Recover the amino acids of this structure.
């Protein structure tokens, strides 16, 4: 497509018409992008290049994807699911072909010129992030506490009320102990997995209403793992799971490195705010 | 006793996907969606998720 021609009228059209949804950033001239990808709006995915980087975008109708519409639509689960899965399909396909920095959901530009400015402005950290993510993949590990096993029955006293209370107390303390073991077991596994990974990040444990499981999720973590070490990593997860009866361990992945796009424990020199500054302040400027 | 096998779901769970698509640090800000970059999307969409999940998995609480 002729970018120049698009840019010419894009500012006028952008007020209401078409915007560009960002899926991910890759290196320009990287491995061939898989063909036939369609973006969140159902239109074909294309790239906008600048500063040695390629932004993979797809056109969206701003009537559905401008700020006001997004604020409303993000609370509509059916809409959110469709958009999240379409976005993920593109990012996962790109991630399978090469290194990507996935964009957060709902990153939309007026036009290709806006995308190119972003690439030029963010060149240094995007470049550093791409280097940091090269050859690495993300694995997800969720841990649930299993139901506590019944405590050994206490010797009968011949008094049913006392026995009931004793059993009840024993059960409650056994439950507490089991929960405690689950929490400690999860930390132990997390430390071991973190040591095998290039980076680790915890997501908040998911609500029971989302998991649909009666047992609480005790840990929800993501690990950035060298691709050559992936088999060893997943074997380690299984080995740890086998040693902890108090935990149900669920592995997800490999994922595109969604959880590791923000420079966290490996800041690139010069990219981080000065000490004492608030990193990534939320809310109004 | 745990068998040592690890469950690997066949389809990506929406909750797992949203953990990743919404919670990750905002490295890139869209010009059309500047103000959304400052919004905690996790919170916004969690309301949608929970409202919907409540109909799928009704809370197992005894009636009052």
């Amino acid at each position: 497509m002729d970018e120049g021609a698009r840019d010419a009228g894009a500012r006028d059209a952008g007020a209401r018409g078409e915007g560009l949804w960002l899926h991910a950033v890759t290196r320009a001239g990287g491995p061939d992008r898989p063909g036939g990808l369609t973006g969140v709006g159902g239109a074909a995915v294309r790239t906008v290049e600048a500063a040695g980087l390629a932004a993979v975008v797809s056109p969206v109708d701003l009537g559905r994807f401008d700020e006001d519409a997004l604020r409303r639509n993000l609370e509509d689960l059916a809409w959110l699911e469709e958009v999240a899965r379409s976005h993920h399909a593109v990012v996962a396909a790109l991630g399978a072909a090469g290194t990507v920095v996935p964009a957060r959901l709902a990153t939309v530009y007026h036009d290709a010129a806006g995308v190119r400015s972003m690439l030029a402005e963010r060149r240094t950290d995007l470049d550093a992030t791409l280097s940091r993510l090269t050859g690495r993949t993300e694995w997800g590990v969720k841990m649930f506490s299993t139901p506590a096993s019944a405590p050994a029955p206490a010797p009968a006293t011949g008094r049913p009320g006392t026995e009931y209370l004793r059993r009840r107390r024993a059960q409650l303390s056994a439950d507490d102990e089991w929960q405690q073991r689950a929490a400690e077991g999860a930390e132990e596994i997390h430390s071991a997995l973190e040591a095998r990974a290039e980076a680790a990040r915890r997501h908040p444990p998911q609500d029971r209403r989302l998991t649909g499981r009666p047992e609480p999720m005790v840990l929800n973590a993501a690990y950035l793992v060298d691709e050559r070490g992936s088999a060893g990593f997943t074997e380690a997860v299984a080995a740890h799971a086998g040693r902890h009866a108090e935990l149900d361990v669920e592995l997800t992945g490999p994922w595109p490195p969604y959880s590791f796009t923000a420079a966290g424990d490996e800041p690139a020199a010069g990219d981080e705010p000065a000490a004492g500054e608030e990193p990534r302040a939320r809310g109004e400027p | 006793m745990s068998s040592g096998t690890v469950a690997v779901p066949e389809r990506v769970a929406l909750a797992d996907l949203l953990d990743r698509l919404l919670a990750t640090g905002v490295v890139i800000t869209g010009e059309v969606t500047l103000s959304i970059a400052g919004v905690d999307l996790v919170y916004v969409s969690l309301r949608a998720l929970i409202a919907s999940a409540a109909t799928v998995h009704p809370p197992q609480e005894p009636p009052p």
Notes: Residues 1-5 of chain B have pLDDT under 50 and may be disordered. Residues 48 and 60 of chain B are 20 Å apart (CA to CA). Helices of chain B lie at 14-23, 34-37, 41-56. Chain B touches chain A through 55 residues (CB under 8 Å).
